[in-house]
Specification:
This protein is mainly alpha-helical. It contains three helices and no strands.
């Protein structure tokens, strides 16, 4: 039984994937900054009520350390997920480009785009393949 093609390279379309990851990371940083500002405002109000109690300061320091660690871990997870999703999009885009380069060069309308299971843009590949079916049928008539 033939094994399905499995891409081994994660970064296929560097520009597309890089922009996608940057977009996701910037969104995560914006969310982290929003949470940080809100956290700071809440702490300011609580500090006004409790003053500079050493136990309170120690508790806040511990909470801040945990929050910073969570932000770093979440950004690492976000980058990993963005790379995975961009790979599922970048691979088909790369395959479309190669397919059309070959189609332009050979004018062989019998070839079809084949994507891996789990890749995105399958609907687009199906539409292109149907379009090529029509072109091939009309050329035979």
């Amino acid at each position: 039984m033939k094994r399905p093609y499995k891409r081994r390279i994660i970064i296929i379309k560097k520009g597309l994937q890089f922009r996608f990851v940057i977009f996701v990371v910037l969104g995560m940083i914006l969310a982290a900054l929003t949470v940080g500002v809100t956290h700071g405002i809440i702490l300011s109000f609580v500090k006004l009520k409790l003053g500079n109690d050493p136990k309170f300061i120690e508790l806040i320091t511990s909470v801040n350390k945990v929050m910073y660690l969570q932000i770093v871990v979440l950004i690492i997870i976000g980058i990993s997920m963005a790379l995975l999703v961009s790979h599922k999009i970048g691979g088909p885009v790369y395959r479309f480009e190669k397919f059309f380069d070959e189609l332009i060069k050979t004018k062989d309308y019998s070839k079809r785009i084949k994507l891996r299971r789990g890749d995105e843009l399958k609907e687009l590949a199906d539409k292109i393949n149907k379009f090529l079916d029509e072109i091939e049928r009309e050329r035979k008539e």
